[in-house]
Amino acid sequence: MIGHIESVFSALAQFEDWRIYSENAAAVNIDAGSVEKLTHGTAELVKHLRRDPTADLSAIDALDTASRWIQDGDTPDKRDVLGLSRSWENLWSVVSKVVLGFGRDVISEGRTQVAAAVLSALLIAAPGMVSVIAKIPGGEWVETVYSYFKAVGIKQLGDGLTTCRRF
C-alpha cells in the first residue's frame, strides 16, 4: 500500500499544481497540539452533521476519513493536514456564500436548511479550530468570518435561518 501511495505521489509530482500544493504543505507550521485541535474539531463537526438529515453523508464521511489519516502514525503528513484545513475553509466559504447571499439571490429552502445546519455545526465545533486554520497560509480570513457569525448570531442573518439558535 505504501509503495502504491508513493508511486501515485511520484506520478502527481509531474504536475505544477501538485508541486505547489506539496510546497505549501511543507511550509505549514503547526504543532502537535494544533493538529490535535484540528482532528478533535473535525470529530465534533462530523458528530453534529451526522445528526442532521439534510447533510450529505459522503461529505461527512470524507471529512471523517481525512481526519483519521492525520491521526495515523506519530507524525502526520503535512499534505493531509493542509487538505483537512482547506476542507474547513471550503465549508466556511460555501456556508458564508449561502448565508450572506440572502438579500441578493433567491436561495432554495433546502440549501438554506443545509447552510443553517452546517453553520450551526461549524460554530459549535470551531472554537479551538479557528486559530489553527488561521495558522495555515491563506486561512486567516476564517477567523474574521467566524467572529462575524458569532457576534451577529445566526438568527439575525435572514428569515431562512431563524430556526437556528443564537450563539
Summarize the structure.
It contains 8 helices and no strands.
Write a structural description.
- By secondary structure, the protein is mainly α.
- The chain has one domain (31-161).
- It has eight helices and no strands.
- The protein has helices spanning 2-12, 16-27, 32-50, 57-71, 78-100, 109-125, 129-135, 141-152.
- Helix 2 crosses helix 5 (78-100), helix 4 (57-71) runs antiparallel to helix 5 (78-100) and helix 7 packs antiparallel against helix 8.
- 25% of the residues are buried.
Helix percentage: 55-70%
Q: What class do helices, strands and sheet pairing give? A: mainly alpha
Overall number of domains: 1
Biggest pleated-sheet summary: none
Q: Give the amount of beta strand, in percent.
A: under 5%
Overall 3D shape: globular
* Helix/strand order: HHHHHHHH
Residue stretches low in confidence (pLDDT < 50, at least 5 long) are: 158-167
The helix count comes to 8
How many beta-strand runs?
A: 0
Distance between the termini: 45 Å
Q: What does the oligomeric state look like here?
A: single chain
Question: Mean pLDDT score, rounded?
Answer: 77
Q: What does the radius of gyration come to?
A: 17 Å
Supply database-style keywords.
single chain; 167 residues; mainly alpha; 69% helix; globular; disordered C terminus
Q: Could you outline the blueprint of secondary structure elements for this entry?
A:
Elements: H1 2-12, H2 16-27, H3 32-50, H4 57-71, H5 78-100, H6 109-125, H7 129-135, H8 141-152
Helix pairs in contact: 2-5, 3-4, 3-6, 4-5, 5-6, 7-8
